[in-house]
Write a structure and sequence with these properties.
Order of helices and strands: HHHHHHH
Radius of gyration: 23 Å
Shape: globular
Distance between the termini: 55 Å
Oligomer: single chain
Largest sheet: none
Number of helices: 7
Length: 209
Amino acid sequence: MRPKTDSQPIPAAPSKGEAWDGLTLFSTFFRIGLFTLGGGYAMIPIIEEEVVRKHKWIDSDLFVDLLAVAQSCPGVFAINISTFIGYKLGKTRAALLASLGTALPSFIIILLIALFFHRLMDVGWIAAMFRGIRPAVVALIAVPTFNMAKSAKITLANCWIPIVTALLIWLLGVNPIYIILAAAAAGLLYSMIIGPTDKTDNTDKDHTA
């Protein structure tokens, strides 16, 4: 007789998030593109809600990194961020689906508006709707700014960086491209010069503890 053994099922590893499929990815970004008003930056909280919190396709740290890359690249921000997220999920196929889903609603709506724009703007209640939408767009852009500040670990020690950057662009009219290049160079120098020192100090503290 074989000895009895307690056969217990091996617990499954905790899921890191939903597995993406083409239809869900396309419909998600189509819905984002359809209901986003005010440009690419206004869609940041909607993308974060769908991609990070709801579907859990990527985490918040990676989302902030992809935002930085999308802002640094030429082209339309909405297409850039959807392409990067899609490529991270499933390479070229997912990038095409996410980009198409984001761009298609805008293309259809802009085409319809171009055909009937003059007639629509003469309608009083439609013009009033657009006047009411404008202040809401400001909030849609402000909310992701605070969320990104938390994810980027903005503290009292480094809060001067975004403040000075904003003042350079707003008051002095410095081209954002120069700001991005300067920030990239500063980050590279920090990682090469100060970064190794910080790691060494942390290692010494761990050994001492």
